[in-house]
Give the backbone structure.
Amino acid sequence: MPNQSNLLAAGGAGATFQERFCQYAQCPADQFAARVLLASVHSDHPLLARLYYRLDKEHYKSDLEMIKMLGQTRQYSDFKQEMQAWRSSHPSKGYLRKTLKLRVSGKNLLRLASHVFKNPFSFGIVARPARLSRKERAARQQAA
């Protein structure tokens, strides 16, 4: 379990999103983009999106480039601004990305970034918080 001293060693309040996420998810830096992508795929077909990522990483090239670029941001406001600029200059095209939504969800990515930036010491969750079962939410509320 990450602790405050580890995050401070990684740059603390000035740490990049990549450093914070890797600390948060306990993953090596070389897995950063893939882990963020898989944690923030569109919720219409999450299993299909994950399977397709394993089969054709080239399909997600634009998403991975965006995530790597966003990994250098140091504040949530910068993250959000950069993501919106990227998405406006790289619109979703093609049947798989536009219709089936086999891509990163901006909403899910912002939710993840918000959690990582605003709650840097709440390290118990690797998946999106909205995906917790009723029992898990109740257990977390009792623990708090």
Q: What stands out?
A: The chain has one domain: 4-143. The CA atoms of residues 84 and 106 lie 8 Å apart.
